[in-house]
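Batch manifest, entry 17 of 40.
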Amino acid sequence: MESSKIKRELTRLCLQLTTNFPYFFLASVRGGVKKRWNRLQYEEGLTVAVPPRSCRDGAALLDLSMTSGLGETVHPDVIYVPEGFGAGKWKYLMTVTPFPKAIVYFENPEFLVSDDGVSWCLPQGGKSPVVAPPSDWTGYNSDPALFYENGTVFLIYREVREEKGCLMISVYVMETRDGISWSAPKALISLRNPTDRAGVLMSPSVLRLGEKYYAWYVDEESGIFEIKRAECPELSSIANGVKVELNGMPDGLMPWHIDVEQDNGRLLMALCARNGDGRHSILFAESRDLGINWRIIEGKRLDPIRESGEDSLYKAALAKSEKHSCWKLYYSYKDLEGHWYTVTEKSLHI
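Output type: structure tokens
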């Protein structure tokens, strides 16, 4: 066996031992093993060469090879700015997290721009990624979302850090007026959780409805995942969320990641739902009472198509098209070989 493989397997064994039997090891030892594992994954991730892939009929595979993860990506969120944004007057803005070889250390939000919602690039002079990876090699930054108001783009994302026998899970916001210079991250909410309860504050999505800002996110309670809505005063904090009602959810599926958008007097949700074997589908829901009661829209469900190379679908996002008569749908998926890609469907009527 090659020495690199031996090193990897020994590190993996140490990680399993320190994770499964934490009370037999000092915190410094557990932390040291985690850092070595993450650094090893990082070095392997830099060698990833992503081959071109096809996708299902009606969808277009996005070339995001300019990102720090070399093109394997998840968690897209896209907004449409009719008047254009930044020096290039870009009409489409995206945040996404790299995910080569499913290495969480790369899960750090990027910011991309486009004129047509299909061809993407980094803004000249912009950072990649926008959110730097953890300096101590533990934790990750995931589930980014964009919100636009009065010439300013807000990037909301979720940070997970490992601390002394617990997880510190926070939602942060950053802002920019040019896509190049960003403000320092500001915490909207932080929770200290047991290490076996990481599924909280997932996939935050923010809107302004009237004079108030709201955030929707996914939380786990006793193994059950549910969607919550919380007020978000002046984009400076997130209050305790209230569980929403989700009517018509198919049996065997639970919410996982979401995106909420406004649509002519109603709210639309793109809902990534998880089944019992860990695979995901995409559903859509609507609300007409400011996002407390939701109804699954029948006949619009997307499931993985193995003949098209999809093993599992993942987080989806909706963005207005130029004509405003339909939506652009963006979503990520895992292929049959474990690679992660982001695609778009140009015309979706919901």
